[in-house]
Structure to design on (253 residues):
């Protein structure tokens, strides 16, 4: 796909002035020049044109807010003085995989006062004797060259660190939730168990009371029956005694 068409698609219904990040990797420049970009991209902070066939930066528009520029795997041989004129606030520049051979080619980059990180991987310049020491001496504002500082300390990936910290915080929150969750569930289970046991005890108690009441009722009925029986027998004996008395009176007469 041609670079100009690709840039048009990447706008996604935005105006050039609204774009802060633009990635058009692996499209094609028809003549080795930057195509489709203009001074209207005044808010652009990140631009990536990896493997698009660039041989020159002469047509790069003025991008005053551009901080990061990725133009690796192209065929740029020089003309880097354009960068200090068009992108004076660059902090990161990736020129890996281009046709840069001499230290003199990167010398114009010393005018990029804010440049902190420079990548020249797979450029012929990296085969020069004392390559790293020479570049650091030539560009004193550069802190990291090909991912390492002058003392071979790797460049810190602050964005990755932030993401990792967020991930750890998120995982810690999840762990806290998981840890707290079972405890609460366990409490609920205990409460439910206690409630169930209470209900069972209550039911058992009521059932026992019911059985005891029934037994007491039965005993009361039996006692009443016994009392009734005793009463009947007493009445019978009394009547018999009266009958005998009547008989005796008759005999006396």
């Amino acid at each position: 796909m041609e670079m100009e068409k690709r840039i048009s698609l990447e706008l996604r219904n935005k105006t050039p002035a609204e774009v802060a990040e633009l990635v058009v990797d692996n499209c094609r420049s028809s003549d080795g020049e930057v195509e489709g970009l203009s001074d209207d991209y005044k808010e652009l902070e990140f631009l990536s044109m990896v493997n698009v066939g660039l041989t020159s930066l002469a047509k790069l528009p003025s991008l005053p807010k551009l901080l990061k520029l990725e133009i690796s795997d192209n065929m740029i041989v020089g003309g880097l003085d354009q960068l200090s004129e068009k992108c004076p606030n660059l902090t990161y520049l990736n020129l890996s995989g281009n046709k840069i051979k001499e230290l003199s080619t990167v010398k114009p980059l010393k005018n990029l006062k804010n440049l902190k990180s420079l990548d020249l991987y797979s450029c012929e310049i990296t085969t020069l004797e004392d390559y790293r020491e020479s570049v650091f001496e030539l560009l004193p504002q550069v802190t990291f060259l090909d991912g390492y500082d002058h003392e071979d300390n790797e460049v810190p990936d602050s964005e990755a660190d932030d993401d990792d910290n967020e991930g750890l915080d998120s995982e810690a929150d999840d762990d806290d939730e998981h840890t707290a969750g079972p405890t609460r569930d366990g409490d609920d289970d205990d409460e439910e168990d206690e409630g169930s046991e209470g209900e069972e005890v209550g039911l058992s108690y009521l059932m026992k009371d019911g059985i005891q009441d029934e037994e007491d009722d039965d005993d009361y009925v039996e006692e009443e029956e016994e009392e009734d029986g005793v009463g009947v027998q007493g009445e019978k004996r009394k009547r018999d005694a009266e009958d005998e008395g009547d008989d005796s009176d008759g005999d006396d007469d």
About this structure: The chain has five helices and six strands. The radius of gyration is 51 Å. The longest strand covers residues 21-23.
